[in-house]
Structures are given as C-alpha cells and as structure tokens.
Amino acid sequence: AGHSRAGGQCGLGWLRAAMARGRRRGNAGGNPGGNPGGNPGGVRKEAVNAYVSPPLPRLVAKVNSVLEESETWSALWEEMCERQGGGFDPAEQTTAFVQIFLDEYAAATSTGGALPTAGAKA
Fold it and tell me: Per the record, where are the segments of Gly residues compositional bias (predicted)?
C-alpha cells in the first residue's frame, strides 16, 4: 500500500478490459438469431475462441478463474509488478506476464497450475 505505480500499469483494469473483450469476441454470433440471417444455432463459441488470438481465450478463462480470488491475487499481482520494475508493461506482454505470475503464485491459490499451452509440462 502507498507504493506509486507508473501509469497505473500494475492495476488489474487493463486485464479486466482484455477479459471483457475476449468474452465479447467469444460470444459473437453465439446466440441463435444474434446475427441477421446468421448461421443456424449461431457460431460455436469454441470455434470463435480458437480463431481469435490464440492462446488468449484459454488465458482469459484461466485468469477469469483466478480472479475469483481477487483480493489474494490483487495483492500478489501488485507485489510481482513492483518486483518486475517500472519498465515492464504487462499490457504489452500480456501472455508472458500472466504466465510468470501464474508460475510464481499458483501454489498460493486453489486454482493453481500453468497455462494450458501446447508443449507445457503437465
């Protein structure tokens, strides 16, 4: 508490915004009749998620689950962000930043684990 943050980069606002964008993309056309004359039954959410910025949808799902423990994670996020230094902008290196975050702090939460990316160790 009381630590200054350059540009507020350590805040979770950018991450929540990215998650909201991911959810909007993932649900686009997913509702029957959502698009005029749309595909029967709408576009499969999985198909849209596979198309839009892999592996962002999996990342969004993972971060969504860990943010349910938001108080714990917010404190850990700020601690890590300060240790990374002011020159590190998580908004520009989202996947790498969150993977480091998960690797360091998975044991501190019930969700735990690394991102489900190809080639990751089980």
Answer: 27-41
Q: Return the structure tokens found at 72.
A: 């714990």
Cis check: omega of the bond before 57, within 30 degrees of 0: no
How far separated are the first and last CA of the chain, in Å rounded? Answer: 36
The CA-atom distances, in angstroms, between 28 and each of 16, 41, 79, 93, 103 are 18, 12, 36, 25, 31
pTM exceeds 0.70, yes or no: no
Which parts of the chain register pLDDT below 50?
A: 4-8, 25-35, 38-39, 112, 114-122
> Locate tokens 């009381």: which residue?
2
Which domain does 57 fall in, by range? 6-108
| 21 within a domain of the structure (yes/no) | yes
CA angle 118, 98, 100 (to 5 degrees): 85
114 belongs to a structural domain: no
- CA–CA dist 78, 73 (Å, integer): 8
For 52-66, how does the pLDDT look when each residue is reduced to its tens digit (9 = 90+)?
555 677 777 777 776
Nearest-angstrom CA–CA distance, 53 and 86? 27
